[in-house]
Fold this protein.
Amino acid sequence: MQKFDVNQIKEDDIQDGKMLLVDKPLTWTSFDVVKYIRKSLVSKFKIKRIKVGHAGTLDPLATGLLIICIGKQTKQISIYQNLSKTYTGKFKLGETTPSYDAETEVNKSFNYDHIKENDIINLSQKFTGKLMQKPPIFSALKKNGKRMYEYARENKKIEIQEREINIYEFEIIKFTDPYIEFKITCSKGTYIRSIANDFGKKLNSGSYLYELRRINIGEFSILNALQIE
């Protein structure tokens, strides 16, 4: 995988616009990547006002494909955001967390001895098509002008509305107790963390998102993404 090199960006790219595919590192926020690239461009071209944005947030504990738009290309962000996304990762059975992923500590443990691999495969097929999903409270969505994760950190309970999503493909790659390895292709606005939580409930147990990597956005692939340090 090729590394990001600011010297490959030309001045015409700043004027006319450019789209980059980037492999977001673990623990970085999506905005960290934007800031890193903007700072690199400002340093090279000595232009303070350079528009840089991303098309589709990845959580800090997720890695993978991020579309970065520079200059006039930022006008295309909404188009990229509406594309389908493909993820690989792992659910961990028998435990839940308040954030539905590994960002917060385990708060409940469950028995999962009754769960067989066939149960997991059969259930995955029921998680395809158009579904109603409730986003996790630990999310950047706004309610009454405030980020929902702010309510969560204040231990405040709020009503979260369900919304329609579409799961185009849900493949179980492997079940290695207690981890379920998966591949999911889904619509914009789908929270894989919520799928992990709902999946555990349907198995009469619990689960949370242990690991996540985005490998495709529409026809754009992680195989063509740039690494950053």
Summary: Residues 6-83+218-227 form a domain with the Pseudouridine synthase fold (CATH 3.30.2350.10).
